[in-house]
Design brief:
Pfam families: HTH_3. The protein is mostly helical and 159 residues long. It has ten helices and no strands. Helix 6 packs across helix 7 and helix 6 runs parallel beside helix 9.
Length: 159
């Protein structure tokens, strides 16, 4: 395993988790087998250029980001939405406070999709930073329930 394949695997994993996909689901989208994908993600195998393009497309990212961690604009893609929050003068104060807490954002690994959801929430009141943390937790909980199909069942059939 090389450092490059390890970093590629880490970025693939981050992109996959940001999309709330399993290894099998992302592999299927890319047209490769799950075992092969798993080997790429853990850094045991390096994909061909063609497979790398397919993985980037399936993971809704770019080959440049998978290889180097930068977008075509030279910006760290993981920080795109967080930076959009920080640069938006109209963003809610609580969301800005969360975005300014870089160590917490790193620990929480807030995806671009999650930043987008938090930014798009319209409320009659302005939650503080802790309120946005609760909203993030609730969003992740709903996403987990949806991923296991619990939200699709009628209420009487739920456990």
């Amino acid at each position: 395993m090389t450092d490059m394949s390890s970093e590629l695997g880490n970025r693939l994993r981050a992109a996959r988790k940001g999309l709330n996909l399993s290894q099998a689901a992302l592999a299927k989208l890319a047209g490769i087998s799950q075992p092969y994908y798993g080997q790429i993600e853990v850094g045991d195998r390096e994909p061909s250029p063609e497979v790398l393009r397919k993985l980037a497309k399936a993971a809704d990212t770019t080959v440049a980001w998978l290889l180097d961690g930068v977008s075509e604009h030279g910006v760290d893609c993981a920080a795109d939405q967080r930076m959009a929050v920080l640069n938006d003068p109209l963003v809610a104060a609580g969301l800005r406070a969360l975005a300014e807490d870089e160590p917490m954002c790193g620990v929480l690994e807030i995806s671009n999709a999650e930043w987008g959801v938090l930014k798009s929430i319209q409320m009659t009141f302005q939650p503080d930073k802790e309120g946005y943390l609760l909203l993030l937790h609730a969003f992740r909980h709903v996403e987990r329930l949806a991923s296991v199909g619990r939200l699709a069942k009628p209420r009487k059939q739920r456990d």
